[in-house]
Amino acid sequence: MPRQTPHPQTICFLVPDQKSPRAKAMLLHPDNEPFVSLYQNATATERAEYGLEIGYHVPTRPRPLVIVEVGKNADLVMPGSNISQVHFSFEIHAESRQIMFWDRSRLHTTKIEPDGFRVGGNFRQVVLDAKTPDYKISAGGEKLDQFVFHLKWCKGATDVVQELEKESQIVAARVHNPRWARTIEDGPTDLPSWYNTRLHTPALGAVQRTMDIGPLGRGSYGEVRKSVDLDSGCFVATKIIHLPPKVDFAMSNEEVLLRREVKVLSSVSHKNIVEYLGSSGWDTSDVNIHMSLKPGNLCDLLRKSPGIRSNKDVLTRLWHEMLEALDYLAYRGWIHRDVKPENILYTPSGDNNYLFQLADFGLANRQLLAHTLCGSPLYMAPEVMHNTHKQSPKMDVWALFVVIGVVTQAGNLHHPGLANYEDVLECVRAAATQHPALIPMAQEDPNLRASAAQMLVKYFDGEGMSTPRHQVGLIPDSGSAPGPTQTPGRRESGQKSQVPPLKGRRLAARDLRRINHASPKVGANGNIPRRRLHANGIAEGRGEPLGFRRFT
């Protein structure tokens, strides 16, 4: 006799469709009878119906990531000559802990609606959203109509996630018979390899649809939220940009910047640049850019582990990996134009070790097109602030020096009370005396400033460099100056370096705020020839051995 009250571990029901007699017959199967009960969460327009319970109490072979399997020889029996041993299943994603519906049939004779499995790329799984009140599941036969069910939730979305996590931990703590383990060929695709395959296989496409989890923060041009890719179950970071309406079919400045960011991210592939996973919503006012999710940015890491400010190994890794990222961009003719701690993401990789990645390419531009005021004032290179030279990848090198100065609290660069740009330059000069190995990065004249490739050659023997070694010249001679030099023509011999005046006045704090929030004007789009660094001589030697003493 079916129970009137469902088992307390039941999270949802498979309720047979009224026009599916074979699905109804499953309720009468002796192996299924213990898990048949009355679905009682029916709305006023629905009547209470009996269904098959889905929950961790159903399997006789409990596994932490498998809730229930349905098939010819499974937890819930679905008999039929064209039904697989396991035809479909309800599982938990190992990373995001979301409920996944899997088609496990040999001939892919399972369908779920609405939305369904993604077409293309051989996707046979989808995340189930507990906020969707009614999923329709069809299985078996050429028309996929032999068994038809309606998936009905008996708990709210929050309760479902909490209940499943608790039950999964209980099951994981049990001692399991190794014979119950799923074979390798039956297991879900490994997450890291899945991401790598998707990123480098255009046929698979990119992330197209997501389910929102919650806020992460705000970027330079939009909100960043934590999401789940509905087709893989993996966490992603989704940057949401609200675009203004088009005027006379012309793209807004914000849309041009956004398309620029997507163009950069989709054309780069480097371990120290955040992975781009796709975009969606271009036909709406809210465009989503999907990237791989990281634990946080450099500011978050410093708040969490302030001891990193003096950790020699971590600082050297940060310096090295950001030089690699900047050299990669420079070799391809790109300038990031907004290098700062908030745009450097981290991922733990072992004990007290991290992988650093550059993110937020909202201001990035081709080297030959870049000419607008951009970036955050504290990290802005002198040639950008004073418009004395063409913008080049060396402005990113300057910004990286300031980042390291802020992280190590050198030269008081971390002080929040810096009121004007002359104070910033004075702090940079002081920081350079504390980090003499980084002086080539802090030259105020970009013609005398080292490139990322030159720093990689000098201090890391070119490890991780994208620019061909023969194209890397010597670091320019700064005239044996002990610190950063001033732009030529601005300093007389024996005089103290001074900041070139900007229209006869100093930049006050309000000016820095104005510059920080200014929207850069965008130039015309076009294919620009790749601009490479040409050698002015033989490559420099390795310089000092690896180690933190470079910073001292």
Q: How would you portray this structure in words?
A:
Its main location: membrane. Its EC number is 2.7.11.1. By secondary structure, this protein is an alpha+beta fold. The protein has three domains: 12-188, Tumour Suppressor Smad4; 199-292, 2-Layer Sandwich (Phosphorylase Kinase, domain 1), CATH 3.30.200.20; 296-476 and 499-521, Transferase(Phosphotransferase), domain 1, CATH 1.10.510. It is built from eleven helices and 21 strands. The chain has helices at 21-26, 157-172, 191-200, 253-267, 298-304, 312-331, 382-385, 394-408, 421-434, 452-460, 509-516, and strands at residues 12-16, 36-39, 49-54, 66-71, 76-77, 88-92, 99-103, 110-113, 125-127, 135-139, 147-153, 210-218, 223-229, 235-242, 276-280, 286-292, 296-297, 334-335, 344-348, 354-358, 365-366. A six-stranded antiparallel β-sheet has the order 2-3-1-11-10-8. It has a five-stranded mixed β-sheet with strand order 5-4-6-7-9, covered by helices on one side. A hairpin with a 7-residue loop joins strand 10 (135-139) and strand 11. Helix 6 (312-331) packs across helix 10. The termini are far apart.
Structural topology:
Layout: E1 12-16, H1 21-26, E2 36-39, E3 49-54, E4 66-71, E5 76-77, E6 88-92, E7 99-103, E8 110-113, E9 125-127, E10 135-139, E11 147-153, H2 157-172, H3 191-200, E12 210-218, E13 223-229, E14 235-242, H4 253-267, E15 276-280, E16 286-292, E17 296-297, H5 298-304, H6 312-331, E18 334-335, E19 344-348, E20 354-358, E21 365-366, H7 382-385, H8 394-408, H9 421-434, H10 452-460, H11 509-516
Parallel strand pairs: 4-5
Antiparallel strand pairs: 1-3, 1-11, 2-3, 4-6, 6-7, 7-9, 8-10, 10-11, 12-13, 13-14, 14-16, 15-16, 17-19, 18-21, 19-20
